[in-house]
Write a structure and sequence with these properties.
about 375 residues, Nucleotidyltransferase, domain 5, 2 domains
Length: about 375
């Protein structure tokens, strides 16, 4: 079996995890601030001797599944960089660092967009001029797919039911955030769009806004394109609402601006959960994952209180103390609500092994 070094390069950080064949993490190195250097990767490779490297890549562009990294794959990923300017260059830097540190190891790129390739055309198509769709490839890609895919596999285990009979809304809530409608194990709708800017309120990203606002700001010369992009990526969301991107801090802040920020955050979250539910014609499981999803019971509680009409109800005592895999539903609730520990590392390792197995058996 294959020991996989998982490389997850964030906008400023680097997470390195060595995933053993049984799913345990035998070693890790997490750098909060990473300058693109190879030292940490080189040291971990020498210490653990992995068999392969798996890279989390935010935007897969035209890629339809995980792939061995070669010149063609790198070209496709560079072409997609303009759609995810905050993350894609860092993903590419992670690939470069691992390639320099361990040039002989097979490397597999695993994309946050792949899981959403199963969305029907009605969910992935924007109502923009056909020329834009055909010439420029304008469409909904969706993101956080590695996290949502893991949730789709983990939820059936937590609720003791087969995936083929489950309709799940997966809420990945962290500094970036998205929700996904998982119908019988497949993504059929999601909140993020062609870029990671659409959808929920996030730490520093605005989520969905009226495009007329943006056109007005540009047309009147109030902002340049660069200023607009910087504002939407780095100075909006919770930071723009309340001066802090840390939701945990805002939850304990009793100021009016902090309360408004939380109200806006929950309002958008509830609306998107309901939208995802409608895409499946019903709901069996509501799942929370990611740093906020796992560690902010008050957010889960407030969202559930607004969604009681769907059959959602929490055991508040259990919800308050749960920060790891677990069921936080009220015993009489028709819809189960669960917390899922975010394990993109396991999903990446699984995809790496699948790619390598197919490379050995080309006809498989």
């Amino acid at each position: 079996m294959t020991r996989v070094l998982v490389v997850n390069a964030g906008s400023s950080s680097l997470k390195l995890d060595v995933v053993e064949p049984d799913g345990t993490v035998s070693d890790r190195q997490h750098l909060r601030e990473w300058d693109g250097g190879t030292e940490a990767v080189t040291e971990l490779v020498a210490r653990t001797r992995p068999d392969a490297v798996g890279h989390r890549v935010v935007h897969g562009g035209t890629m339809t599944g995980p792939a061995l990294v070669d010149s063609g794959v790198l070209e496709a990923l560079r072409a997609a960089a303009e759609l995810a300017p905050l993350h894609q260059p860092r993903s590419l830097a992670g690939i470069d660092a691992a390639s320099s540190a361990a040039p002989d190891l097979p490397a597999v790129a695993c994309f946050d967009t792949t899981f959403h390739r199963t969305m029907p055309a009605a969910a992935s198509t924007y109502a923009v001029p056909r020329d834009w769709r055909e010439r420029f490839g304008v469409r909904r890609y969706g993101f956080h797919g590695l996290s949502h895919a893991y949730v789709a596999r983990r939820v059936p285990e937590l609720v003791g039911r087969d995936a083929s009979g489950l309709r799940t809304v997966s809420c990945h809530l962290g500094s970036g955030a998205s929700v996904c409608a998982v119908d019988r194990g497949r993504s059929v709708a999601t909140s993020m769009g062609m870029t990671p800017l659409e959808g929920l309120v996030m730490g520093t990203r605005a989520g969905s806004v009226d495009p007329g606002i943006l056109l007005w700001l540009l047309r009147t010369g109030r902002l340049s394109p660069a200023e607009l992009e910087d504002g939407l990526e780095h100075h909006a969301g919770l930071l723009g609402l309340a001066g802090s991107s840390n939701l945990a801090d805002l939850m304990t802040d009793e100021s009016d601006v902090a309360r408004l920020a939380i109200d806006v955050y929950v309002h958008r979250l509830v609306a998107e959960i309901a939208t995802m539910t409608s895409a499946m014609g019903g709901l069996d499981v509501l799942a929370f994952t990611g740093g906020v999803g796992e560690n902010a019971p008050a957010v889960r509680s407030r969202a559930a209180a607004r969604l009681g009409f769907l059959g959602i109800a929490l055991d508040e005592d259990v919800n308050e103390r749960t920060t790891d895999d677990g069921d936080v539903s009220d015993l009489g609730a028709r819809v189960r609500t669960v917390v899922v520990d975010a394990r993109e590392d396991l999903e990446i390792a699984r995809e790496v092994r699948g790619v390598l197995a197919r490379a050995v058996r080309p006809g498989a």
